[in-house]
Amino acid sequence: MSRRLIWNLLAALLLASFMPPLLELTTFDSIVPFLPLLLTPLLLSHVQRRWFLSGSLLALIVSFYFILTPGEAPWRLLGEITDDVSRVINGELPGRPAFALSIGLISFLIGYLGRRTFPNRGFVVGLTVGVIGFIAYCDTWTDYSGDQFILYPILLALLLLYATEINERPTASYVRPISALLIIGVTIVAALQSPVITATWQNSWYDWTSRFEGEGTSTNTIQKVGYGSNDEQLGGPFQMDDREVFQVESEGNRYWRVETKDIYTGKGWVLSESNPEIDGRGFFSHFGDDVETREESATFELARELPFVPYNGDNVRLTAADQRQNLLINPENQKISYLDDAARQQNYQIQYAYPLFTEKLLQTDEPVKLSEMEQDRYLQLPRTLPDRVRDLAAEIVADEETPWERAKAIENYFEQENFEYNTEDVAVPAEDQDYVDQFLFETKLGYCDNFSTSATVLLRAAGLPARWVKGFTGGESDVIGSAVTSYTVRNKNAHSWVEVYIEGPGWVPLEPTVSFDGTGQYTINQETDNETEQSNPQRDTETDTETATPNRPQENLLDDAQATTANQAEKRSIPVWPIIGTLLGLVFLYLFRKPIIRTAAILFFRSQIKRPEGFKRMYRFLLRRLDKQGFHYKDGRTLAELAHEVDGYYETYAMRPLTDAYERMIYGGETLSLEKKREYFENMIRRVEG
């Protein structure tokens, strides 16, 4: 009895191991309310059926009480579950009641299966593969990271296999416990000491499938969404990448900038020069002296180490483990990075100055006071730029007076002229074709690279210093407090935009990409006297940024290739309908297991019965099915006595001739005809599995 209790406990704990990743991907906070319905069926799998059923039902009710209506009347549970199941039937997504009911059904079916098959290594292997496979799936294709937790179900599976071996073959021996300890010890040492591989199967899958995407030349292949640094060749379609980059708790939805580029080549962007320097803060003088700023902070939790620090605003300070960190500051492209790879942080906090512009300050018409070198950099245009691009810029700003009005006219041009946001049919310019010219006059569709690059070129053509900016939009949000919000930023949230220089305000962000409103770039104080603030929509758009589509083709963050995308929000969840379909399939198989077994056995042995070995296999299969029904042929009875009892119970004459034929085949003599064997076998299997 004690061995069975240990086996039950190990099996129950192994089953419960599939819940932590599932809970992390849903809205449930703790596994504790699920423990009664997860553990009880397997813990009671050895008791009488009535106690097993009543105990499992009681555990289900207890868990439902704490999961669905904590502190409320238990009789409300049935109503909650019924209402939610009805909503699922009507095509809606399941809620907490249907989710809890599904988990309870899975637990009960596995407990019942363990009850019927104990001790059975096949059950243990199936349970192990299912649990570890589910954790591996979540680790690979979702935000869940199982690199630490996966060791626990592996150890539980090894212990459960050892307990199963002891129950199947209870003979005392020192070989089995020593072997088990060696295997478990080697597993623990290998898990703790093996080097961590940063690549994932999901990365490999994207890399492998990308070879089959797109046709034609290599420059037109479908790329991936993400952040990198190579922007020399822009254009072409891309594929979605939902992998998480970081989570950030901030005081609002913010754009997180990484770097700028200043030289437009006609095909893409490069940086004119790079002279990084060591500093304790990133002070880039983005804004003028008259710009009011607000001190904000943001806490970052990176999914993997990044070679750069995403930030917002000005005067950036980074703190990790309560220690101020020295950083590598590049004043040429405003990029903040680490002194070396060993200094990279995955959890840190930044403080920065967030700008609060005023309409009066933005409307200034003072001449630009940038140095001659800075004006050369931020007004640079290639000699090969077609004249019609310059003419278009002059036409757009012809009726505007101040630099800010001219900049806003260029920003709004794309929406007013019905340019289309598109990620699939995006062209790559020919060798003798300018990237901006193609977008403005031929295709008029694209994603953020097309819009931001074209806006930067038009601003420069209109005489306004501008630079191309890369980083991330805000990601999906989950409010956790009145002032602080948690956001999940993914590869698909990489993005590019533009900053224009206006004497007085300084560098002001613009969002030219249609379907993006630029919320989170800065704030405009509409009424400076009473300090009323308004989140700055760059322009009125019909599409909310929370539902905007992804933005640009890139390669993986750590591959240091190209970069950017959009601000499409998705709920943090796993696919629901495949789980429901699987559960319904398991229920169907369980309810109709007997006719399925009967039909499969008849079809399989119709061909096998022709051969002596096939007939023996058929007869032994029939004995095993009878053993499941309580007719145990190893209880000191002969096969003939068993056959007589079976025929008497089922009121038939089929088992005795089959047994006689089986014994004659073994010991020699006449046997039944092929037709009679088939007839008797099918008669028996229909009754046994009826």
UniProtKB/TrEMBL annotation:
Biased composition annotated in UniProt, kind: Polar residues: 518-538
Pfam families per the UniProt record, alphabetical: DUF4129 (PF13559), Transglut_core (PF01841)
Keywords, in A-Z order: Membrane, Transmembrane, Transmembrane helix
Lineage top rank: taxon: Bacteria
Positions of transmembrane segments: 28-44, 51-68, 97-114, 121-137, 149-166, 178-201, 574-592
Residues annotated as domain Transglutaminase-like: 440-514
Region (Disordered): 518-558
Keyword Cell membrane: no
PANTHER family hit by this protein: PROTEIN-GLUTAMINE GAMMA-GLUTAMYLTRANSFERASE
Protein name: Transglutaminase
Annotated organism of origin: Exiguobacterium oxidotolerans
